[in-house]
Amino acid sequence: QVQLVESGGGLVQPGGSLRLSCAASGFTFGSYHMRWYRQAPGKEREWVAIITAINAATSYADSVKGRFTISTDNAKSTVYLQMNGLKPEDTAVYYCHAQSTGSGRAYWGQGTQVTVSS
Fold it and tell me: What DSSP line would sit under 2-67, residue for residue?
């Protein structure tokens, strides 16, 4: 069965760094576009970053551009989100998302909490 398991969240001071991981299983990882989303309290879930399946092209929301980096390790079926220069407004639950390049079927992880506070 399909599983996306995020880890790496926690409490960090402003300006600090965290690396989120999302371990995938139950599907052909290399055939899926991988995205990170986040949802802050009282706000809608928003897209953060994508890495495409075909050529590993990346794109970022303006709010995180230049601070966050998405990457994959296909041998480990894992997608990462390196977050540097964290700000209090980055506080949210971060979700991993996988979407098939063929069928378009999509899956979500359970989320990991990131809190940026002094």
Answer: -EEEEE--EEE-TT--EEEEEEEESS-GGGEEEEEEEE-TTS--EEEEEE-TTT--EEE-TTTTTT
